[in-house]
Fold this sequence. Notes:
single chain; 214 residues; alpha+beta; two-stranded antiparallel ribbon; 4 helices; 21% strand
Amino acid sequence: MRARRSIRLKGWDYSQPSWYYVTIVVKERRCDFGRVVIDAVDLSELGRAADACWRKIPEHHDGVGLDEYVVMPNHVHGIVIINEKPRREIHRRDVQLNVPTDNGSMLNVPTDNAVEPVVSADRPMIHQIGKSISPVKGSLSVIIRTYKAAVTTWARANGYAEFAWQGRFHDHIVRDEDDLNRIREYIRDNPVKWALDEENPEISSSKQTPLRRT
């Protein structure tokens, strides 16, 4: 099974409820997110940031869930679930609600959905990873675009000024349970099969050097 099958499916509404398998690749296929060691991915600091941003996607997009995913040395595979959304959606983050009191005055009540910092064993705090992901509803393209922006913002703020993604991402609309299980297995096995992965620069004519912090 190939990691990438299609770009956008013509005529398909990518904001409607469905399960989507996506692949997002680092520019020039540089292995900025880490390396594969004994069939497992050893994530770099930037790779851990990409992982943390991915896990935060549901916090910033109402009605969106995640299934199987993996951050590879130079790309991300993941299943994004867009669920039915309520008719009236209220998006809140780091805001206050003005609640009327009995005496006619207004009481400011903070919400409980502030973005929490991510703690790393190597770094006490990764500066509020995912904060740049806007909590707005949208299509799959909006979800992936804001994810990519969050990782890029973190990279720029932490010394990886040259980090960049490929301009587009690849998607596959999950057809049925058999298709879903096949994709899940492919994602889980990706580190084991890294030596044969088409995204692996080791098997291409040119090798890329991962970014260093500046």
